[in-house]
Specification:
Mean pLDDT: 95
Number of helices: 12
Number of domains: 3
Distance between the termini: 58 Å
CATH architecture of the largest domain: 2-Layer Sandwich
Strand content: 25-35%
Order of helices and strands: EHEEHEHHHEHEEHEEEEEHEEHHEHEEH
Bound molecules: adenosine monophosphate
Number of strands: 17
Oligomer: single chain
CATH class of the largest domain: Alpha Beta
CATH topology of the largest domain: D-amino Acid Aminotransferase, Chain A, domain 1
Helix content: 25-40%
CATH superfamily of the largest domain: ATP-grasp fold, B domain
Length: 374
């Protein structure tokens, strides 16, 4: 009988050599798969833990073709890769996450239109092409509003908050990079995310909702369980499941959302891959987002994720590394992950650590006491 899943020793090709690819590769290798990574940087975080690396640009068609020939299945670890280039290899190798999901999530305008068509609640927005559009349309949204480039934005790059009319000219400079989305400010109480997984048999599972705290638009901490009402938690999981179904997802998808004081949920963004806010799953759940992703893209059955213990995850950026290293001897219960990046830069994600705890407030107090993240 033919199997509908990939067997161990099959090769998984990974486009992108960052920390997400690294943790995907580690999960894949522990399941007996071989991995091969395509990234322009030699010795990338993923290459360090993969069987093979192809050093080439993400849009290098010849290199992508090589990856396709050598792989039984191909996955990507981030969404800013060349859609056209991916299309060219999709005929040769299975890319379960698919090029369509990529095209939607790498373009905010398409993503918003898609979310609307799925009937999920999003912040009111308009598409703007030139600065005069902002002057014309901002009153329909009110102040403050957020201007976001449609493409190539991450960790808050390519965004500007417009507090008053006097900010419009400066914000309008973002239009140099192409059409933008002008979005109403959501006075949220909490930011949360749900990692949802789906396989080719239509099985869908969600991970526990994570409460996310950002600093300078970069994820700082994830707190799980999120400190929200049970009904909001259930609704968030249902939204994520609905989206996974609509998208015919194969793999994992992160759904970022805002929650207001009244418990209203607004979907902010989708990421069609494992996500920083799901790193806590490595130690805190019975299965990690990375293992679930590998299972999903290989057509294996998914495991229903369960939280084993409440957790707090905190990112280790370049400016935190020395202090973490100096203090880690005092905290044997910290699960520390480093990504093998040679060059330490301010705000560069170098690693993360997770604390399992009975009470997330205790872990937050402990982290505050270290003064590392002040
Ligand atoms: P994004 O790149 O869309 O995830 O935005 C980065 C961060 O900016 C979010 O995590 C929020 O903290 C903030 N942000 C973005 N859009 C809005 C909005 N419409 N209302 C309030 N805060 C926002």
């Amino acid at each position: 009988m033919s199997k509908h899943y990939l067997l161990p020793n099959s090769t998984i090709g990974i486009i992108g050599g960052g920390q997400l690819g690294r943790m995907m590769s580690l999960a894949a290798k522990s399941m007996g798969f071989r991995t091969i990574v395509l990234d322009p940087t030699p010795d990338s975080p993923t290459a360090q833990v993969a069987d093979e690396q192809i050093i080439a640009a993400y849009d290098d068609k010849e290199a992508l073709n090589q990856l396709a020939i050598k792989s039984d299945v191909v996955t990507y670890e981030f969404e800013n890769i060349d859609y056209e280039a991916l299309l060219t290899i999709e005929k040769e190798v299975s890319i379960p996450q698919g090029s369509e999901l990529l095209s939607i999530t790498q373009d905010r305008i398409l993503e918003k239109a898609y979310l609307e068509s799925c009937n999920v609640n999003i912040a009111p927005y308009v598409v703007v092409v030139e600065p005069s559009d902002i002057y014309e349309k901002i009153n329909s949204l009110g102040y403050p509003a957020v201007l976001k480039t449609s493409r190539d934005g991450y960790d808050g790059k390519g965004q500007m908050i417009i507090h008053t009319e006097s900010d419009i000219d400066k914000a309008g400079e973002l239009l140099k990079y192409g059409s933008c989305v002008l979005e109403a400010w959501v006075p949220f109480d909490k930011e949360i995310s749900v990692i949802v997984a789906r396989n080719n048999r239509g099985q869908i599972e969600t991970f526990p909702v994570s409460e996310n705290i950002h600093r300078n638009n970069i994820l700082h901490q994830s707190i799980v369980p999120a400190r929200i009402e049970v009904e909001v938690e259930e609704e968030a999981a249902n939204i994520a499941k609905r989206l996974a179904g609509f998208l015919r997802l194969q793999g994992v998808l992160a759904v970022e959302m805002f929650v207001t004081n009244a418990g209203a949920i607004y979907v902010n963004e989708l990421a069609p891959r494992p996500h920083n806010s799901g790193h806590y799953t490595i130690e805190a759940c019975n299965i990690s987002q990375f293992t679930e992703h590998i299972r999903a893209i290989c057509g294996l059955p998914l495991l229903k994720p369960e939280l084993i213990k409440p957790a707090v995850m905190v990112n280790i950026l370049g400016q935190h590394v020395t202090d973490v290293n100096n203090q880690m001897g005092d905290y044997p219960h910290w699960f520390i992950h480093y990504y093998g990046k040679r060059e330490m830069k301010v705000n560069r994600k170098m690693g993360h650590l997770t604390i399992l705890t009975k009470d997330t407030n205790d872990a937050l107090t402990e982290l505050a006491k270290t003064k590392i993240w002040e």
